[in-house]
Amino acid sequence: xxxxxxxxxxxxxxxxxxxxxxxxxxxxTNNFDTAAYLTASKLGKEAGVSExxxxxxxxxxxxxxxxxxQKAIQVIVKTNSNxxxxxxxxxxxxxxKGVLKSILSTDCERLRDTIQNGIxxxxxxxxxxxxxxxxxxxxxxxxxxxxxxxxxxYYFKMxxxxxxxVDANSTSETLEQIYNMxxxxxxxxxxxxxxxxxxxxxxxxxxxHGAKTIALTDNAQSPIxxxxxxxxxxxxxxxxxxDSLVCALSVVNALVTAIALLRKDDVEKRLMALEEIWxxxxxxxxxxxxxxx
Length: 293
What we know:
Helices cover 58% and strands 10% of the residues. The chain is of the alpha/beta class. Helix 2 crosses helix 4, helix 10 (145-159) packs parallel to helix 13 and helix 11 (171-178) packs parallel to helix 12 (197-208).
């Protein structure tokens, strides 16, 4: 059951539930956006069962206690909630505290969680090796993840010649841009809840054509993981209509930096050439410019 999400586990175990567990399962299924941030005691009260029933229910679903069950409910919130449900949930979470400090604190927690329980260093090193050895590098992120893909592409284009940021408005256009994928190519797919079908289809296409595939997503239940040779997990959260991608951005920074250090001599030559161009065409303000005011 390791790769089943909460709703799949409930469905597979439903025949073995007691009356109280059935009531609890029904409450969670119908009110997951509310249940996601309740304590075991409050969840039991809302569902009309005891706190001990809630704890036993977690073990019945093969979770290691209520905290793990609560995390599984939060995953469902991220993947199944529509924008209006997110807005309602955020109102409940942030109305008592200031929005700014609450969101900054949540991002800090997600970064700590990513360091401790998220990204695996062996997987990260594998991704670095794939990227460094690849003939061409394709990068795809849609919707809010498109900005991550664009930033990653911006920096990798300083380090490599053959970097393609897939920029398309439909699945057919996406596949047209990657149709010539070959076994010595690499594709990075970036998606977070609510997961993009287009990214999943593109990564599957790349894998089917023998390319090395890298997933940048939030957890092992993400639908693109099954099509990835290497998976990098960065924790995310639901914040009103905003996807919190702070952890994912840190992983992007780490990938670019690791590749730059690996190709240090070549990168220094490239950067020197770029600096000459930037200076020649006056791309950036220099400190001396401010003396003229």
